[in-house]
Design goal:
Layout lengths: L12 H30 L7 H15 L9 H21 L5 E3 L6 E3 H16 L11
Antiparallel strand pairs: 1-2
Helix pairs in contact: 1-2, 1-3, 2-3
Length: 138
Amino acid sequence: MLRAHKIRLNPTPEQEVYFRKAAGTARFAYNWGLAEIKRALDEGRRPDSVLTLKQRFNSIKGSQFPWVYEVTKCAPEGAFRNLGAALTNFRASQRGERKGQVCPQCGGLVDRDYNAAQNLRDEALRVSAIPVVATSGC
């Protein structure tokens, strides 16, 4: 038997502002790191590692981005962790390691993006209470 718990956050106005600041800070740190990587590639240099980027960000945040101190340090740290995972997945896809999986029913290759799009569509239809006809990747 599977059990699920739904937890609803009911933040105070002050907490809602804090959540928005933390999410914005994480988004900023992620985009800053990604921009630094793109800049290095455009200049024909090897990009710094995510750890080095995180260290550079931490060294300049006091002077250039002092508002980062208004939220938990976990916000930018998590952003750099997510950036590292995204880059790992991107490199794996460039090497052909994330092309998809073999369908157990028909033996064909199921494209990850197509499968994800089908799953999103089916979930959106389920949530909107429109009857869904089951589809397969075949």
